Amino acid sequence: MVKIIDSYIKGLKDGLNVIILHFMLVSVLLPLYILLSAFHSLILACLFLVLISLMLTIHFFRDPVRETKYQNNLLYSPADGIISSIDTVQEKTYLKKRSYRIKIFMNLFNVHRNRIPFTGIIDHVQYSKGRFRSAFKEVEQSNEQFIIRMKSIFGKMIIKQIAGLIARRLICNIKKGDRVKTGQGFGMIKCGSAVIIYLPSSIKLSVKKGDKVKAGITELASFNK
């Protein structure tokens, strides 16, 4: 129970503006309820909707406490959601070789916190403006995103936080030169969205299309020591 409460308290800072807006609406509706007796039913209905929205907002921004079981040859999922595609591609910008491209789709009800898949050093972080099309489609080249390039003992990887149709804000709390650890939180994507990760094709995948994954918990791949 304590961990559950902590997960909601930790998440409040990122949703503070939206939460304050809800309380402002309540502070306006309560005096109206007192002053306008003829509209009690309507105002009560509005208050009910605002409170429901507040509860959903607090739930959405939750940041659950998770203990990643670190092993020096395992990579973990960077996001909660479902594996919507796994492709083998020629990655030309950073890995510059045959690579796995794994896309994780996150719906509105998933935890939207992102975590580092494996211990390493952040090589580059780039923000790219773009559109807000549905993240369930092929939007890697068009949607707003953060592109994170990092290197580790198994090689290089790319993580992309991609905004979706409803998600209009990306949060990325790491920068070039940061030393990061497996399971470490590094940001979030608000509302439905996707995370794409590029990994060397020499590793062994532990997931397949359609699998449900959890950030910092589900083993994504492994490699020989």
How would you describe the overall organization of this protein?
It is a single chain. The chain has 225 residues and is of the alpha+beta class. It folds into 2 domains: 2-60; 74-222, Glucose Permease (Domain IIA). It has helices spanning 2-11, 16-35, 40-60, and strands at residues 74-76, 81-91, 97-106, 113-115, 120-128, 145-152, 155-162, 170-172, 179-180, 185-189, 193-200, 204-205, 212-213, 219-222. The chain has an 8-stranded antiparallel beta sheet, with no helix packed on it. The protein has a 3-stranded antiparallel beta sheet with strand order 1-14-12, with no helix packed on it. A 3-stranded antiparallel beta sheet has the order 4-10-8, with no helix packed on it. α2 packs antiparallel against α3 (40-60). It starts with a helix and ends with a strand.
Please name the defining characteristics of this protein.
single chain, 225 residues, 8-stranded antiparallel sheet, 3-stranded antiparallel sheet, 14 strands
